[in-house]
Amino acid sequence: MATGVHPLLVSRVTLVGKASYTGTRTYIALKNPRAAACQPRQFTFVHSSGILVQKERMLPIRSKILSREDRRLTGSVRAGLSNAKHEPGPTRRCIVLDIEGTTTPIAFVTDVLFPYARDNVRKHLMSTYDSEETKSDINLLRAQVEDDLREGILGSVPVPSDDAGKEEVIDSLVANVEAMIKADRKITSLKELQGHIWRKGFENKELIAVVYEDVPEALQKWHANGIKVYIYSSGSREAQRLIFGNTSYGDLRKYLCGFFDTTIGNKKESQSYYEISQSLGVNKPSEVLFVTDVYQEAVAAKAAGLEVLISLRPGNAPVPDNHGFATIKSFAEL
């Protein structure tokens, strides 16, 4: 069989094998199926000459001129990949996941995490009042409450200065935090404090995080295939790490490459998703897949150029009719 230099320029490639088959089904045979989870810009695809490669940076590739039978078989592989539902395509390098309603039931957050924070906020503030971490939390809350009072946000009460005394300050903070939790506000000051309260709960084994049963297997599969996975949630990065580090399936953080929270921007604003895509080292936003259960977040991510899927899990809020997005009910569909 003759060899030659294929004229196509692609990212740096490593030849890892050709398509093999049994009967009428076509399979991909990888000589080295294990890929480092967080290696930058690495994934597999079948290029036009039928050789399976791993992609990194720009270099010309050397390919074999295949026989007619080889071309027929590898063409079947390409067709199978392009027709598979939600199969990671050649331009998908990263997956960004929401938490509530996507990896984790909403009920776990609303019925377990939120009540735990509400019930323990006073105890937490009393026991850590003089720590630098809690002082920072109080400063953030003070600034937020001042804004809320100016805007007439329901449930906001003034936070006195430290001169008023520890108990009076904490009483006002507890009143504000309870109102914020009740309104399910997606604000950094609340989320930072909640994360610090939940940390104690996870450390004491009072809290065990819940994820959907298809999540661990999917994370493991994407990790093995070299697809980088990130989390973007309104919860603080610490809270995200606590959730994935303390699940009923064990510590899943080994399959994740990073965490984003509202410090990068509101989840319903397209600029937030643009900033995330700029942080991931991709060539263009469309190389990032975002999965969420919230229609407004899907719209914002699409406006920023990301690929988007809407998660339809039990208990999720309904999405508008004719919303125009592809949907999944399980990560097994990816």
TrEMBL record:
Pfam families, per database record: Hydrolase
Which keywords has UniProt assigned to this entry? Amino-acid biosynthesis, Hydrolase, Magnesium, Metal-binding, Methionine biosynthesis
Record lineage: Eukaryota, Viridiplantae, Streptophyta, Embryophyta, Tracheophyta
Question: Which CDD domains would you find in this protein's record?
Answer: HAD_EP (cd01629)
Q: Does the keyword Endoplasmic reticulum apply?
A: no
| GO BP, one annotated term | L-methionine salvage from methylthioadenosine
One GO molecular-function annotation for this sequence? acireductone synthase activity
Q: What is the name of this protein?
A: Acireductone synthase
> Looking at the keywords, is Metal-binding present?
yes
Give the InterPro entries listed for this entry. Enolase-ppase_E1, HAD-SF_hydro_IA
